[in-house]
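User: Before I run my own analysis I want an independent prediction to cross-check against. Here's the chain; please return only the C-alpha coordinates and, at the end, one sentence I can use as a sanity check.
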Amino acid sequence: MSTAPTREPELRGQTVVVIGGSAGIGLETARRARAEGAAVVLTGRDPQRLERAALDVGARDTAVFDATDDAAMASFFAGLEGAVDHVMVTAGAPHYAPPLEMTPDQARDGLTEHLLLTLAVARGAVGKVKPGGSLIFMGGTGARRPRVGLAIASTATVAQPALIANLALELAPIRVNLIAPGFVDTPLSAAILGDDLDKRRAELRATLPIRRVVGPDDVAALAIHLMSNTALTGATFDIDGGQQLVF
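Assistant: C-alpha coordinates:
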Protein backbone atom coordinates (compact mmCIF):
# COMPACT_ATOMS: atom_id res chain seq x y z
CA MET A 1 0.00 0.00 0.00
CA SER A 2 1.52 3.30 -1.12
CA THR A 3 1.54 6.37 1.05
CA ALA A 4 1.30 9.99 0.00
CA PRO A 5 4.67 11.79 -0.04
CA THR A 6 5.32 14.04 2.94
CA ARG A 7 5.49 17.71 1.99
CA GLU A 8 8.49 19.66 3.22
CA PRO A 9 7.46 22.65 5.38
CA GLU A 10 7.83 25.72 3.20
CA LEU A 11 9.49 27.92 5.83
CA ARG A 12 11.57 25.37 7.73
CA GLY A 13 14.54 27.02 9.44
CA GLN A 14 13.40 30.54 8.60
CA THR A 15 12.42 33.41 10.89
CA VAL A 16 9.27 35.46 10.36
CA VAL A 17 8.61 38.78 12.11
CA VAL A 18 4.97 39.85 12.36
CA ILE A 19 4.52 43.52 13.26
CA GLY A 20 1.00 43.73 14.62
CA GLY A 21 0.92 40.02 15.33
CA SER A 22 -1.24 39.83 18.44
CA ALA A 23 -4.62 39.41 16.71
CA GLY A 24 -6.44 39.02 13.42
CA ILE A 25 -4.49 38.57 10.20
CA GLY A 26 -1.13 39.00 11.90
CA LEU A 27 -1.77 36.30 14.48
CA GLU A 28 -3.14 33.89 11.88
CA THR A 29 -0.08 34.47 9.71
CA ALA A 30 2.14 33.69 12.69
CA ARG A 31 0.23 30.42 13.25
CA ARG A 32 0.70 29.39 9.64
CA ALA A 33 4.36 30.36 9.64
CA ARG A 34 4.92 28.17 12.69
CA ALA A 35 3.05 25.31 11.01
CA GLU A 36 5.41 25.70 8.04
CA GLY A 37 8.45 25.34 10.27
CA ALA A 38 9.40 28.98 10.92
CA ALA A 39 10.38 30.65 14.16
CA VAL A 40 8.26 33.75 14.75
CA VAL A 41 8.79 37.09 16.43
CA LEU A 42 5.63 39.00 17.33
CA THR A 43 5.16 42.70 18.08
CA GLY A 44 2.15 44.64 19.31
CA ARG A 45 1.06 47.56 21.45
CA ASP A 46 -0.94 45.68 24.10
CA PRO A 47 1.40 43.67 26.38
CA GLN A 48 -1.26 41.27 27.66
CA ARG A 49 -2.74 40.50 24.26
CA LEU A 50 0.74 40.07 22.83
CA GLU A 51 1.68 37.65 25.62
CA ARG A 52 -1.41 35.54 24.91
CA ALA A 53 -0.61 35.48 21.20
CA ALA A 54 3.00 34.49 21.86
CA LEU A 55 1.88 31.56 24.01
CA ASP A 56 -0.65 30.57 21.35
CA VAL A 57 1.93 30.24 18.57
CA GLY A 58 5.07 29.50 20.57
CA ALA A 59 6.80 32.70 19.52
CA ARG A 60 10.58 32.89 19.74
CA ASP A 61 10.40 36.46 21.00
CA THR A 62 8.09 39.45 21.39
CA ALA A 63 8.40 43.23 21.50
CA VAL A 64 5.90 45.78 22.77
CA PHE A 65 5.85 49.12 20.95
CA ASP A 66 3.72 51.41 18.79
CA ALA A 67 4.53 50.64 15.17
CA THR A 68 3.82 54.24 14.15
CA ASP A 69 6.68 55.45 16.37
CA ASP A 70 9.69 55.68 14.04
CA ALA A 71 12.24 55.66 16.86
CA ALA A 72 10.65 52.59 18.43
CA MET A 73 10.62 50.81 15.07
CA ALA A 74 14.29 51.59 14.47
CA SER A 75 15.15 50.38 17.97
CA PHE A 76 13.24 47.15 17.41
CA PHE A 77 15.11 46.28 14.22
CA ALA A 78 18.45 47.26 15.74
CA GLY A 79 17.79 44.91 18.65
CA LEU A 80 16.70 41.90 16.59
CA GLU A 81 18.82 38.86 17.29
CA GLY A 82 20.43 37.81 14.03
CA ALA A 83 19.08 38.13 10.50
CA VAL A 84 15.46 37.32 9.65
CA ASP A 85 13.83 36.03 6.50
CA HIS A 86 10.45 37.75 6.34
CA VAL A 87 8.63 40.70 7.87
CA MET A 88 4.84 40.88 7.73
CA VAL A 89 3.23 44.20 8.71
CA THR A 90 -0.41 44.25 9.77
CA ALA A 91 -0.19 47.09 12.30
CA GLY A 92 -2.27 50.22 11.88
CA ALA A 93 -5.89 50.94 11.11
CA PRO A 94 -7.60 52.96 8.36
CA HIS A 95 -8.88 56.45 9.12
CA TYR A 96 -12.60 56.50 8.31
CA ALA A 97 -14.32 59.86 8.73
CA PRO A 98 -15.97 62.51 6.54
CA PRO A 99 -12.92 64.27 5.07
CA LEU A 100 -14.32 67.80 5.40
CA GLU A 101 -14.97 67.20 9.10
CA MET A 102 -11.42 66.06 9.84
CA THR A 103 -8.99 68.48 11.40
CA PRO A 104 -5.86 69.16 9.33
CA ASP A 105 -3.84 66.99 11.74
CA GLN A 106 -6.32 64.11 11.45
CA ALA A 107 -6.27 64.32 7.66
CA ARG A 108 -2.48 64.49 7.62
CA ASP A 109 -2.23 61.40 9.81
CA GLY A 110 -4.73 59.54 7.67
CA LEU A 111 -2.86 60.33 4.47
CA THR A 112 0.64 59.58 5.71
CA GLU A 113 0.55 57.12 8.62
CA HIS A 114 0.64 53.87 6.63
CA LEU A 115 3.10 55.21 4.07
CA LEU A 116 5.51 56.38 6.74
CA LEU A 117 5.15 53.07 8.57
CA THR A 118 6.08 51.28 5.35
CA LEU A 119 9.18 53.44 4.97
CA ALA A 120 10.18 52.89 8.61
CA VAL A 121 10.01 49.11 8.14
CA ALA A 122 11.92 49.35 4.87
CA ARG A 123 14.71 51.31 6.58
CA GLY A 124 14.85 48.82 9.43
CA ALA A 125 14.97 45.87 7.04
CA VAL A 126 18.28 46.93 5.50
CA GLY A 127 20.96 44.71 6.96
CA LYS A 128 18.42 42.65 8.92
CA VAL A 129 16.36 40.84 6.28
CA LYS A 130 18.29 38.23 4.31
CA PRO A 131 18.74 38.60 0.55
CA GLY A 132 15.79 36.91 -1.13
CA GLY A 133 13.69 37.38 1.98
CA SER A 134 10.55 39.47 1.92
CA LEU A 135 8.60 42.37 3.33
CA ILE A 136 4.81 42.06 3.14
CA PHE A 137 2.50 45.00 3.80
CA MET A 138 -1.27 45.35 4.05
CA GLY A 139 -3.33 47.69 1.89
CA GLY A 140 -6.90 47.44 0.70
CA THR A 141 -9.25 47.65 -2.25
CA GLY A 142 -11.38 50.52 -0.98
CA ALA A 143 -9.82 53.06 -3.33
CA ARG A 144 -11.03 51.21 -6.44
CA ARG A 145 -14.50 52.76 -6.20
CA PRO A 146 -15.08 56.26 -4.75
CA ARG A 147 -17.54 56.46 -1.87
CA VAL A 148 -18.75 59.17 0.44
CA GLY A 149 -16.65 59.41 3.60
CA LEU A 150 -13.67 57.41 2.29
CA ALA A 151 -11.61 60.15 0.61
CA ILE A 152 -8.71 60.12 3.07
CA ALA A 153 -8.48 56.35 3.53
CA SER A 154 -8.84 55.78 -0.23
CA THR A 155 -6.16 58.30 -1.13
CA ALA A 156 -3.70 56.69 1.26
CA THR A 157 -4.58 53.24 -0.06
CA VAL A 158 -4.10 54.11 -3.71
CA ALA A 159 -0.58 55.41 -3.02
CA GLN A 160 0.63 52.17 -1.47
CA PRO A 161 1.11 50.06 -4.63
CA ALA A 162 3.38 52.73 -6.14
CA LEU A 163 5.46 52.87 -2.97
CA ILE A 164 5.70 49.08 -2.79
CA ALA A 165 6.81 48.76 -6.43
CA ASN A 166 9.53 51.35 -5.96
CA LEU A 167 10.72 49.83 -2.69
CA ALA A 168 11.08 46.48 -4.45
CA LEU A 169 13.76 48.14 -6.59
CA GLU A 170 15.32 50.09 -3.73
CA LEU A 171 15.65 47.05 -1.45
CA ALA A 172 16.46 44.34 -4.02
CA PRO A 173 17.24 41.48 -3.61
CA ILE A 174 14.87 41.73 -0.62
CA ARG A 175 11.39 41.23 -2.06
CA VAL A 176 8.56 43.66 -1.27
CA ASN A 177 4.87 42.92 -1.84
CA LEU A 178 1.46 44.29 -0.86
CA ILE A 179 -1.69 42.37 0.07
CA ALA A 180 -4.91 44.26 -0.68
CA PRO A 181 -7.90 42.68 1.10
CA GLY A 182 -11.52 43.62 0.84
CA PHE A 183 -13.65 42.95 3.91
CA VAL A 184 -11.95 40.45 6.25
CA ASP A 185 -13.78 39.11 9.30
CA THR A 186 -11.38 40.25 12.03
CA PRO A 187 -11.66 41.91 15.45
CA LEU A 188 -10.77 45.21 13.73
CA SER A 189 -13.71 44.84 11.35
CA ALA A 190 -15.95 44.06 14.32
CA ALA A 191 -14.76 47.21 16.11
CA ILE A 192 -15.39 49.37 13.04
CA LEU A 193 -18.83 47.98 12.18
CA GLY A 194 -20.17 47.40 15.68
CA ASP A 195 -23.83 46.37 15.57
CA ASP A 196 -23.76 46.26 11.76
CA LEU A 197 -21.25 43.39 11.65
CA ASP A 198 -23.75 40.53 11.30
CA LYS A 199 -25.66 42.41 8.62
CA ARG A 200 -22.45 42.90 6.63
CA ARG A 201 -21.52 39.24 6.98
CA ALA A 202 -24.92 38.15 5.71
CA GLU A 203 -24.74 40.57 2.79
CA LEU A 204 -21.34 39.24 1.75
CA ARG A 205 -22.37 35.59 2.04
CA ALA A 206 -25.31 36.28 -0.24
CA THR A 207 -23.49 38.33 -2.86
CA LEU A 208 -19.81 37.39 -3.08
CA PRO A 209 -18.96 34.92 -5.86
CA ILE A 210 -17.29 32.65 -3.27
CA ARG A 211 -20.51 32.69 -1.18
CA ARG A 212 -18.67 33.11 2.09
CA VAL A 213 -16.84 35.78 4.06
CA VAL A 214 -13.08 36.16 3.70
CA GLY A 215 -11.30 35.35 6.98
CA PRO A 216 -7.85 35.96 8.43
CA ASP A 217 -6.78 32.44 7.44
CA ASP A 218 -7.37 33.26 3.77
CA VAL A 219 -5.08 36.29 3.95
CA ALA A 220 -2.51 34.38 6.00
CA ALA A 221 -2.36 31.64 3.35
CA LEU A 222 -1.55 34.29 0.75
CA ALA A 223 1.11 35.81 2.99
CA ILE A 224 2.86 32.46 3.41
CA HIS A 225 2.83 31.98 -0.36
CA LEU A 226 4.44 35.40 -0.86
CA MET A 227 7.16 34.43 1.60
CA SER A 228 7.92 31.10 -0.05
CA ASN A 229 7.60 32.04 -3.74
CA THR A 230 10.86 33.83 -4.45
CA ALA A 231 9.74 35.04 -7.90
CA LEU A 232 7.25 37.53 -6.45
CA THR A 233 8.21 41.13 -5.77
CA GLY A 234 6.90 44.65 -6.35
CA ALA A 235 3.31 43.50 -6.78
CA THR A 236 -0.10 44.05 -5.20
CA PHE A 237 -2.26 40.99 -4.60
CA ASP A 238 -6.02 41.46 -4.18
CA ILE A 239 -7.89 39.07 -1.91
CA ASP A 240 -11.56 39.95 -1.59
CA GLY A 241 -13.62 36.94 -2.62
CA GLY A 242 -14.73 38.80 -5.74
CA GLN A 243 -16.04 41.80 -3.79
CA GLN A 244 -14.92 44.26 -6.47
CA LEU A 245 -16.97 42.40 -9.06
CA VAL A 246 -20.30 42.88 -7.31
CA PHE A 247 -20.05 46.10 -5.26
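Sanity check: The chain has a mean pLDDT of 92.
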